[in-house]
């Protein structure tokens, strides 16, 4: 299953931490505050637990969507997706 | 079909314009730069055309996902969704 994580978090350090967790779980950055990738249900639950710990007590929210393959391919992109990371972590 | 619009746009005025278009098409703000709602395919195409015009020549991107009903209900929310708008436009 594809998993889309979007977040709205003000403190920089927590936002970086959340991005790091998304990367740890193999997701790829598609926007400054959005990550997409494929994940098992088990891994998604692990990631969710880490994200919960990361933003405890912080103003903001993280939303995790599950999008099945045929629908994720319907994504429409307007404008240019920049390369958010130097080296390696390419957008798809 | 549920439609999720996420965007990553730097200029304030263009970002506000994009948010306004999402609202015009009946979407509801779920994060500072994310809107969700139900829309026909025809309306989605109209919205896409307006969004394309809005960000022409601007650095940034808008991504439109289509998520069918049973999957949109699987959304997991960590933290609190604030009320992004004063009056009216409640989050769901």
Largest sheet of chain A: 4 strands, antiparallel
The pLDDT mean of chain A sits at: 91
Largest interface, with counts of residues having CB < 8 Å to the other chain, equals: A-B, 36 and 36 residues
Structural class by secondary-structure content of chain A: alpha+beta
Q: Using only CA atoms, what is the Rg of chain A? A: 13 Å
| Low-confidence runs of chain A | 86-92
Please write the string of helix (H) and strand (E) elements of chain A. EHEEHEHE
Strand order within the widest beta sheet of chain A: 2-3-1-4
Report the CATH C-level class of chain A. Alpha Beta
Oligomer: homodimer
Number of continuous helical runs of chain A: 3
Q: What share of residues of chain A is helical?
A: 25-40%
Q: What is the CA-CA span between the terminal residues of chain A? A: 16 Å
DSSP, total strands of chain A: 5
Count the domains of chain A.
1
Strand content of chain A: 25-35%
Coarse shape of chain A: globular
Explain what this protein looks like in three dimensions:
2 copies of one chain form a homodimer. Chain A has helices at residues 12-24, 41-55, 69-72, and strands at residues 2-9, 28-31, 34-38, 60-67, 76-79. Chain A has one domain: Alpha-Beta Plaits (2-Layer Sandwich), CATH 3.30.70. In chain A, strands 2-3-1-4 form a 4-stranded antiparallel sheet. In chain A, α1 (12-24) runs antiparallel to α2. The longest helix of chain A is centred in the middle third of the chain and has 15 residues, at 41-55. The model of chain A is unreliable at 86-92 (pLDDT under 50). With 92 residues, chain A is an alpha+beta fold. The interface between A and B is large, with 36 and 36 residues. β4 (60-67) of chain A pairs antiparallel with β5 of chain B.
């Amino acid at each position: 299953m594809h998993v889309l994580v979007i977040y709205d978090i003000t403190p920089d350090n927590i936002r970086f931490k959340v991005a790091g967790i998304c990367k740890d779980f193999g997701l790829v950055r598609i926007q400054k505050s959005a990550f997409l990738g494929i994940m098992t249900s088990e891994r998604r639950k692990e990631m969710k637990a880490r994200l919960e710990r990361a933003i405890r007590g912080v103003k903001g929210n993280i939303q995790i969507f599950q999008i099945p393959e045929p629908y994720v391919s319907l994504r429409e992109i307007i404008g240019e997706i920049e390369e958010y990371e130097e080296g390696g972590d390419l957008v798809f």
